[in-house]
Amino acid sequence: MPASWKGYISFGLVSVPISLSPAARSESISFNQLHNVCHTRLKHPLFCPTCNRNVEWSEIEKGYEYEKDQYLLFTPQELKSVEPETAEAMEILEFVKMSDIDPVYYDASYYIAPQEAGVHAYHLLQNAMRESGYAGIAKVTMHNREYTVVIRATETGLTLHTMFYQNEIREAQDYTGKDKTEVREQEKTLALQLIKNLAGPFEPEKYRDTYQEALQNLIDAKTHGKSVAAVPHKKQAPVIDLVAALKQSVEQQTSRRAGKTLLRAVPAKAEERKKGRKAG
Q1: pLDDT tens for residues 130-182?
Q2: Cα–Cα 20 to 30 A to 247, which of 69, 187, 217, 261?
């Protein structure tokens, strides 16, 4: 995969040549837009209404509309001339605790890879950040804008996250209402018990996009002239008796946990019996 950005990352007087590559990408089944008369795929050509013809990419230039249908034209050289220093180098401005950053600021994620000349300094920064528990705040210019980024160290290297600016974050609304009702102790105890029953380590491999799987099943079935059953949806209704609902939830989760423990114990006991027979 081609690098999204190449340049230097610096802390103090130490500079490390690096490259960035996307850490994740969204994967989904996409559908094309077809004409419902002839089922032909629709196209979106670049069309100039003044010249009354389609245009090539080589004929395109950038313009800023300062008044209705009035544009200031810019050449690539002019745009290049105003790129800040962060277009080629990102300097770590300060170090902060990751826990101090509200996740609402995170945007896209990138892996930071060292160039050959910077491997040693890269590992130095990685190890120092991991041991200290701090993440670095820096600025970098790419994709025609300057980002504030957070750089964090993992076991395998450095990861970068672009961040939204303060003015891009929408003000949080107080959805609990102006007249907050008092939470009863029994309700809180049951809610805490439910959280405890549902608690576990974060294992991302357990989660998958069931809607994409359903779409793929639908495509496969339609390809072979078959149909698929509609997915049943539960009817949700507002909870009237909160304590009763919490008690029932806790009981259900307790039963499920007991069932999972039993399922894990049965194979283990069977394995012990096998070992016992072999030993005899």
Answers
A1: 999 999 999 999 888 899 999 999 999 999 999 999 999 998 877 666 556 78
A2: 261
Nearest by Cα to 161 from 143, 138, 134: 138
Q: Is residue 217 part of a domain?
A: no
pLDDT over 90, % of the chain: 38
Residue found under tokens 């809180």: 188
**What is the span of the domain harbouring residue 99?**
5-23+84-167
Total number of domains in the chain:
2
118, 7 contact by CB (below 8 A)? no
Q: pTM higher than 0.85, yes or no? A: no
* Residues 6 or more apart in contact with residue 245 via CB below 8 angstroms: 239
The span from the CA of 27 to the CA of 25, in Å, is 6
Torsion angle of alpha carbons 97, 103, 106, 107, nearest 10°? 160
pLDDT score for 64: 92
- Please check whether residue 157 lies inside any domain of the structure: yes
| Residue 222 identity (one-letter amino acid) | K
Could you give the C-alpha distances from 181 to 190, 239, 246, in angstroms and in order?
17, 15, 17
Q: Please, what is the Cα angle at 215 between 212 and 216, to 5 degrees? A: 90
pLDDT number for residue 129: 94
Quote the Cα angle for 48-53-55, to 5°: 70
Give the pLDDT score at 162. Answer: 95
Low-confidence ranges of the chain (pLDDT < 50): none
Eight-state DSSP code of residue 34: B
Planar angle of CA 88, 92, 93, nearest 5 degrees: 115
C-beta separation of 168 from 119 below 8 A:
no
